[in-house]
Amino acid sequence: MRYYTAIVHHDEGSAYGLTFPDLPGAFASADTWDRIPDAATEALDLWFEDQPDVEPASLDDIRKRDDVAEELAAGAVLMPVPYIPADTATVRVNVTLERGLLRAIDETAKGRGMTRSSFLSSASRREIVGTSA
User: Is 18:47 a contact under the CB 8 Å cutoff?
Assistant: First the structure.
């Protein structure tokens, strides 16, 4: 997993805008602060669909950039965004869970029309990335 730094811009009365200094042309918007992780993840997924793999710059290197310094001076903030590359290959794993927790997982997954695996994958991604997907 890699972390890409987003510059989060926000003007009064508008959505939050995100750009990624390492990824020219990658951008996103979110109506609320809480929706930023979803928007950022979607932007990274779309960018990497047809762009080459890019190693993220360190936070220190990004802060040293003149264009980033200008954005920060204008009120923008930096946000690390974890990115899990799309990889549809599945892997079978063996995990150990408390019996009560496993029952709760299975009941919740069933109630949502999900398999145990899809529920655990979704919950794990949400915990790591902060998205609702």
Answer: no
User: What pLDDT score was predicted for residue 131?
Assistant: 63
- Sorted by sequence, the CB contacts under 8 Å of residue 117 that are 6+ apart come out as none
Say how far residue 69 (Cα) sits from the centre of its chain. 23
Structure tokens at 99: 């019996």
Those residues of the chain that have pLDDT short of 50 are none
Phi-psi region of 112 (alpha: psi -120 to 50; beta: other; left: phi over 0): alpha
| Count of other CB atoms within 10 angstroms of residue 28 | 24
Please give the structure tokens belonging to residue 112.
Answer: 């949502």
E-only strand ranges, the chain:
2-10, 16-19, 27-30, 77-83
Q: Over the Cα atoms of the chain, what is R_g?
A: 18
pTM, entire model: 0.73
How high is the pLDDT of residue 133? Answer: 53
